[in-house]
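Q: Okay, next protein. This is Ribosome maturation factor RimP from Seonamhaeicola algicola. I've checked the sequence twice, so it should be correct. Can you predict the 3D structure?
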Amino acid sequence: MFKSTVENLLEKALEERTDLFLIDFSIQGDNQIKVIIDGDNGVVVDDCIYISRAIEHNLDREEQDFSLDVMSAGATAPLVKQRQYKKNINRTLKVKTATETFEGTLFEVAEEAITLQWKVREPKPVGKGKVTVTKQANIAYKDIVEAKVMIKF
């Protein structure tokens, strides 16, 4: 009962703020509510406050004791929803599949797959020396074991 009430409040808040979307939601045994959100344009503190208030202000603490944490997915968290890839176009990703690891710029996001692009130095086909070559990998979402944005300073 409590969980479905919280789910409905969360769903309503996300319908009102279509730029935000749910990454994870759980309620621990002692009514500890944990909500992790992301947004098409990132997440700021006010977004977390908005979701928090939408839930908290519609629950009765007299009826139910609870704690509530609303947070963003975080810069180092793996990408888990297809929608997260779109906001990271042109950023460097490290993508692991069952057999390979790729690191490159997220070049394209399609319905079934992403395209990474990177440059490598390879020996010239003829003669001595090396030449810079642009490589691409098309990786299906179903093959991705883990994908993270690489933070560069």
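A: Here is a summary of the prediction. Helices lie at 2-16, 45-56, 82-86. The chain has a mean pLDDT of 94.
Q: Noted. On to the next one.
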